[in-house]
């Protein structure tokens, strides 16, 4: 049965690895719903957070293939229940609305969103949260007109430990 | 390149010297013990070729007639010698022509390093002449790849390339070197790579798993071993033989596992798979413990997974953790280097005999012999069969030859009937099924084992996919023996058309050229055999020849290979006719 899985990959920060990783999903005809790469808690080590829907057998095999890549240090998969995750959305809206439509200020306040910037022509709202929360804000703002909308990929940390430092230490000591 | 991520050890030539990147490529190859490479020159790799000229006494370069030929030759060389094969090409079409061989090496776990030239760094991404994104193209079919854009990175990149290609589960690595990096001068010193922090070539053996496996084997009434190329790659042939003999376990091979155990060994029951032997396929569904050693349960081996060995407890000896439970769910996965795990297993396994169980294999063999083998090897009909050609070659070489086969009916017949006395004797394209593999692979196989007889068995279709390598044979005088089993058809496809597509022979009939004239054009002695009475003499003449020899045998046009498990059917549905 298909389910949303968060795949976390710790890797070396090498050019070309992104295409190697995405090729593993492509080969199995699995669509990547979101992908985020950043440096992690260890210097020079990258962390990929990939969200995709598949069954557990598939995600287990994909993680096996990912770990086989030379520059992948370790890969994990988790269900939503096993992770703390967030996404960030940015809404660009006409500045006039902020003053003309009182309701917008209430929407921003009630949704715990932040105003990132206010310019003469537009202002930008940032909202971090679960998908349904950014979706809800979108639905509320849409009637007023949204100039631009963008949402980040999921970022997630697992509830369980991922012991990468120990793995790297092991190599140094070997 | 960062060095804290790799463990590099100094080799003999410690003093650093100022040389060009191109010369560094050659020196790196020499440091890795390479004395033979295959390739084809072109614009973006010319500085390296210029250095090859300088080092021609130390590093022999074989000019193939197509870059694909260079990869297959490097594969053939690697498969018989156990060393890393090296292929070199220029950018653009030179590089893309390597891709089939790289994909073949990836799926068949062959250690190979490919070096490609690339346009200068400042032209990357400009659609320069002969620019192609070979890193992007080759990513899914390489174990690792890396683009070098400055000379100083060449030694580390090549040291890692060789380490990665040969360690763990071997595979192909591609190093793409921009032309400016080949020209640049830098202080060269070489350190061999001994470890990469993000790469664990071999999982650590878990002794508890070995004990679990031993207990299962000791309690089995009908244990059955299926072994693959992992035994050869892991140099565990002796351990496999000892295990089989000590515990009295019947064993069968995958296509790529052939020759890991001598064909004539009394417990070698044959080959599994789509055109494998009757007993080994059928009895997969009768055994109580299935012991898979260095094999990956390919679909051509298992047929329908839902009806594959469901009654059996499965033990899987495997170096690649991603293979465990990939296709067949295992009860005991013994991860690690197969030589090490089998060595640990051997003292724990009790001496045993399973005579009644082995007799079941013999009974099935008798059925197969009567229905299939007899007619293949000793046909009563007028036309020649592929099987009798292989049988004659067996007789003449005694089973000591390296048999290099292409892809199709002749390949299955060669794998079914060729006799192998020693390991690393069966060179064929297993996973990818690359037609055109055999002729160039035979060149590499002969160069990798010059003291052995190397016989290429090729169909008339595949032969014409890389026929230009006759030029390489002519130029290098490499004494390979080439047998084309000519049925004027793409035989395996035709067989499927006959069995599953109502005999609608769409584009499978070949109007062939005069192969003898072609061979003679390359000054290769050649003979055509059409009748049984000429066959013995022709094979004698071919084997006796000190130089390359081409033998065309015209065989029955519409013979089929049996047994056969139709696609998607169960191993229990192995058909004899």
UniProtKB/TrEMBL annotation, chain A:
Residues 6-80 form the ACT domain. It catalyses: 2 pyruvate + H(+) = (2S)-2-acetolactate + CO2. Pathway: Amino-acid biosynthesis; L-isoleucine biosynthesis; L-isoleucine from 2-oxobutanoate: step 1/4; Amino-acid biosynthesis; L-valine biosynthesis; L-valine from pyruvate: step 1/4. InterPro entries: Acetalactate_synth_ssu (IPR004789), Acetolactate_synth/TF_NikR_C (IPR027271), Acetolactate_synth_ssu_C (IPR019455), ACT-like_dom_sf (IPR045865), ACT_dom (IPR002912), AHAS_ACT (IPR039557), AHAS_small-like_ACT (IPR054480). Signal peptide: none annotated. It holds the Pfam family ACT_AHAS_ss. The keyword Transferase applies. GO terms for cellular component: cytosol. It is an enzyme of class 2 (transferase). Keywords: Amino-acid biosynthesis, Branched-chain amino acid biosynthesis, Transferase. GO terms for biological process: isoleucine biosynthetic process; L-valine biosynthetic process. Coiled coil: none annotated. One of its GO terms (molecular function) is acetolactate synthase regulator activity. Its EC number is 2.2.1.6. The keyword Amino-acid biosynthesis applies. PANTHER family: ACETOLACTATE SYNTHASE SMALL SUBUNIT (PTHR30239), ACETOLACTATE SYNTHASE SMALL SUBUNIT 1, CHLOROPLASTIC (PTHR30239:SF0). Catalyzes the conversion of 2 pyruvate molecules into acetolactate in the first common step of the biosynthetic pathway of the branched-amino acids such as leucine, isoleucine, and valine. NCBIfam families: acolac_sm (TIGR00119). Belongs to the acetolactate synthase small subunit family. Dimer of large and small chains. This is Acetolactate synthase small subunit. It comes from Sinomicrobium weinanense. The lineage of its organism: Bacteria, Pseudomonadati, Bacteroidota, Flavobacteriia, Flavobacteriales.
UniProtKB/TrEMBL annotation, chain B:
GO terms for biological process: isoleucine biosynthetic process; L-valine biosynthetic process. Residues 406-553 form the Thiamine pyrophosphate enzyme TPP-binding domain. One of its GO terms (molecular function) is acetolactate synthase activity. Binds 1 thiamine pyrophosphate per subunit. Binds 1 Mg(2+) ion per subunit. PROSITE patterns: TPP_ENZYMES. Residues 20-135 form the Thiamine pyrophosphate enzyme N-terminal TPP-binding domain. Keywords: Amino-acid biosynthesis, Branched-chain amino acid biosynthesis, Magnesium, Metal-binding, Thiamine pyrophosphate, Transferase. GO terms for cellular component: acetolactate synthase complex. Pathway: Amino-acid biosynthesis; L-isoleucine biosynthesis; L-isoleucine from 2-oxobutanoate: step 1/4; Amino-acid biosynthesis; L-valine biosynthesis; L-valine from pyruvate: step 1/4. It catalyses: 2 pyruvate + H(+) = (2S)-2-acetolactate + CO2. This is Acetolactate synthase.
């Amino acid at each position: 049965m298909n389910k949303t899985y968060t795949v976390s990959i710790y890797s070396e920060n090498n050019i070309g690895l992104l295409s190697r990783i995405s090729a593993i999903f492509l080969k199995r005809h699995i669509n990547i719903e979101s992908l985020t790469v950043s440096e992690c808690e260890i210097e020079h080590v990258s962390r990929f957070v990939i969200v995709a829907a598949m069954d557990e057998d598939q995600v287990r095999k994909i993680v096996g293939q990912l770990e086989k890549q030379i520059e992948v240090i370790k890969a994990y998969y988790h269900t939503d229940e096993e992770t703390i995750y967030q996404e960030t959305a940015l809404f660009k809206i006409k500045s006039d609305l902020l003053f003309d439509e009182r309701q917008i200020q209430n929407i921003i306040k009630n949704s715990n969103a932040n105003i990132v910037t206010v310019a003469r022509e537009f202002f930008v709202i940032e909202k971090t949260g679960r998908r349904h929360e950014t979706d809800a804000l979108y639905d509320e703002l849409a009637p007023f007109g949204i100039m631009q909308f963008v949402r980040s990929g999921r970022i997630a940390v697992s509830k369980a430990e991922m012991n990468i430092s120990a793995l790297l230490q092991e190599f140094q000591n070997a | 390149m960062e060095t804290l991520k790799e463990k590099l050890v100094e080799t003999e030539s410690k003093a650093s010297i100022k040389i060009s990147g191109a010369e560094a490529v050659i020196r790196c190859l020499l440091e890795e013990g390479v004395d033979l490479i295959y390739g084809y020159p072109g614009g973006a790799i010319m500085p390296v070729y210029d250095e090859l000229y300088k080092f021609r006494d130390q590093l022999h370069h074989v000019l193939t007639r197509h870059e694909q030929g260079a990869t297959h030759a490097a594969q053939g060389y690697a498969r018989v010698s156990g060393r890393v094969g090296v292929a070199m090409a220029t950018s653009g079409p030179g590089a893309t022509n390597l891709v089939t061989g790289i994909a073949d090496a990836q799926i068949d776990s062959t250690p190979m390093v490919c070096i490609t030239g690339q346009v200068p760094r400042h032209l990357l991404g400009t659609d320069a002449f002969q620019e192609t994104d070979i890193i992007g193209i080759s990513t899914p079919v390489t174990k690792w790849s890396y683009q070098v854009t400055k000379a100083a990175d060449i030694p580390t990149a090549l040291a890692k390339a060789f380490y990665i290609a040969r360690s763990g589960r071997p595979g192909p690595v591609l190093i793409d070197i921009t032309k400016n990096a080949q020209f640049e001068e830098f202080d060269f010193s070489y350190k061999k790579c001994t470890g990469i922090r993000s790469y664990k070539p071999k999982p650590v053996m878990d002794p508890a798993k070995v004990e679990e496996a031993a207990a299962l084997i000791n309690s089995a009434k009908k244990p059955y071993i299926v072994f693959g190329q992992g035994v050869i790659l892991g140099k565990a042939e002796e351990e496999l033989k000892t295990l089989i003999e000590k515990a009295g376990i019947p064993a069968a091979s995958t296509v790529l596992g052939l020759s890991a155990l001598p064909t004539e060994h009394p417990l070698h029951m044959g080959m599994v798979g789509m055109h494998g032997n009757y007993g080994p396929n059928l009895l997969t569904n009768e055994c109580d413990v299935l012991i898979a050693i260095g094999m990956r349960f390919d679909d051509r081996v298992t047929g329908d997974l839902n009806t594959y060995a469901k009654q059996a407890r499965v033990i899987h000896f495997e170096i690649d953790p991603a293979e465990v439970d990939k296709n067949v769910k295992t009860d005991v996965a013994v991860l690690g280097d197969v030589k090490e795990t089998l060595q640990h297993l051997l003292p724990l396994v009790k001496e045993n005999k399973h005579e009644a169980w082995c007799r079941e294999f013999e009974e099935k063999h008798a059925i197969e012999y009567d229905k299939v083998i007899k007619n293949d090897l000793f046909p009563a009909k007028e036309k020649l069969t592929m099987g009798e050609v292989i049988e004659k070659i067996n007789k003449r070489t005694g089973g000591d030859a390296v048999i290099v086969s292409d892809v199709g009916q002749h390949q299955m017949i060669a794998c079914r009937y060729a006799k192998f006395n020693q390991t690393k004797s069966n060179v064929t394209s297993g996973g990818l099924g690359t037609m055109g593999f055999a002729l160039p692979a035979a060149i590499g196989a002969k160069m990798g084992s010059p003291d052995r007889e190397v016989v290429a068995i090729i169909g008339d279709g595949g032969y014409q996919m890389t026929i230009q390598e006759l030029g390489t044979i002519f130029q290098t005088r490499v004494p390979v023996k080439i047998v084309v089993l000519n049925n004027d058809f793409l035989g395996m496809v035709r067989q499927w058309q006959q069995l599953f597509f109502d005999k609608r022979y769409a584009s499978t009939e070949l109007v062939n050229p005069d192969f003898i004239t072609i061979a003679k054009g390359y000054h290769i002695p050649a003979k055509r055999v059409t009748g049984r009475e000429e066959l013995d003499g022709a094979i004698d003449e071919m084997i006796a020849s000190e130089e390359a020899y081409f033998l065309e045998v015209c065989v029955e046009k519409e013979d089929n290979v049996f047994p056969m498990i139709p696609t998607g059917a169960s191993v229990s549905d192995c058909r004899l006719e």
